[in-house]
Amino acid sequence: MLNNGALVGLIVLVIILAIAAPAFLTIDNVINVGVQAAAIAIIAFGMTFVIVTGGIDLSVGAVAALGGMVSAFMWAEAGLPGWVTLILGLLVGVLSGAIVGLSIAYGKLPAFIATLAMMSITRGLTLVISEGSPIASSSGVNWMGADFGPVPVPIIMMVLAGLLCWFILSRTVLGRSMYALGGNMEAARLSGLPVRRILISVYALSGLFAAWAGLVMTARLSSAQPNTGMGYELDAIAAVVIGGASLAGGRGGAWGTFVGAILLAVIRNGLNLLNVSSFWQQIVIGLVIAAAVGFDVIRNKTLSQ
User: Taking 50 as the threshold, does the pLDDT of residue 1 lie above it?
Assistant: First the structure.
């Protein structure tokens, strides 16, 4: 239960909703849950890197909006090819994250402050570029919101992002170094790890995944919206923590984050099927986040004994 609490909770929730709302387990609705979870899951995979190192990233929702907006603007206004604008959107995320990483690694800013400032900057830039209005996106981006046979491409993007997150964390030196930083940053530094370089890489990856999610959301609507990603940073943090990561760092993984993101999507979808007010849905999500953090505290105490 300590290691698979989110998965057990998801299974129990699915059983309850299948009984309470017969339409829940239909193929169309299951696919709908996957599509709804895709953007949050992709952002959360990037957030996993940050939380594993003991940090936090509040800028991901705004970075997602800026990535999609820059891509749409460069196609609609500058006339660049669609595939070029897609790459530019991703680079916006990498650059935003790298700047945050630099400010933390060299400027010694707390992650909370650095990412809060970046959230304000990127959200402001999105509004400046768009002048508060949606901008149509290119076919070079819109394919990410289409279907590949019977499977929506956003679900494929979510799976690919999850596999990439898993590979980096479990099969690369960078990934193992992230766990070392989260366990004890000073010990990691004394043992010769390039702590500053790792931190920059971690936040650059978080920005990359955020921009990736922003492009997926842009593709689903065939336009970049100025308010894209509002509040998604909180859902991403919740998905990572619900999935078993520790806010203290040193623990977390792609599978747990995936389960956490699906759990949040299932809760929202189930409440919609049960005709629960969106106002009450926010309360339920808040209680789930509080329960996940409380469970994390209890788990840490249990594992330390």
Answer: no
Structural tokens at position 26: 């239909």
Q: 222-249: per-residue pLDDT in tens? A: 999 999 999 899 999 989 988 888 888 9
Task: In whole angstroms, give the CA distance from residue 71 to residue 91.
Answer: 10
User: Over the stretch 23-57, which tens digit does the pLDDT of each residue have?
Assistant: 999 999 999 999 999 999 999 999 999 999 999 99
Specify the pTM: 0.94
Nearest to 64 by CA among 116, 122, 115, 113: 122
Q: What is the 3-state secondary structure (H, E, C) of 202-228?
A: HHHHHHHHHHHHHHHHHHHHCEECCCC
Paired sense of beta strands 151-152 and 147-148, if any: antiparallel
DSSP-derived secondary structure letter, 172: S
Place of tokens 């006339």: 79
Helices (H) and strands (E) in the chain, counts: 13, 4
> Would you say 209 and 40 are in contact if contact means Cβ atoms under 8 Å apart?
no
Residue-wise pLDDT tens digits, 120-162: 999 999 999 999 999 999 999 999 999 999 999 999 999 999 9
Q: Residue with structure tokens 């986040």?
A: 289
Residues 6+ apart with CB under 8 A from 47: 57, 60, 206, 209, 233, 236, 237, 239, 240, 257
> How are the residues of the chain apportioned to helix, strand and coil, as percentages rounded to the nearest 5?
75, 5, 20
What burial letters (b/e) apply to 60-69, b meaning 16+ CB within 10 Å?
A: bbbbbbbbbb
Q: How far apart are the first and last CA of the chain?
A: 17
C-alpha dihedral sign at 62, 258, 175, 3: positive
Domains, the chain, with CATH or none: 31-304 (1.10.3470)
User: Which 3 state secondary structure label does DSSP give 116?
Assistant: helix
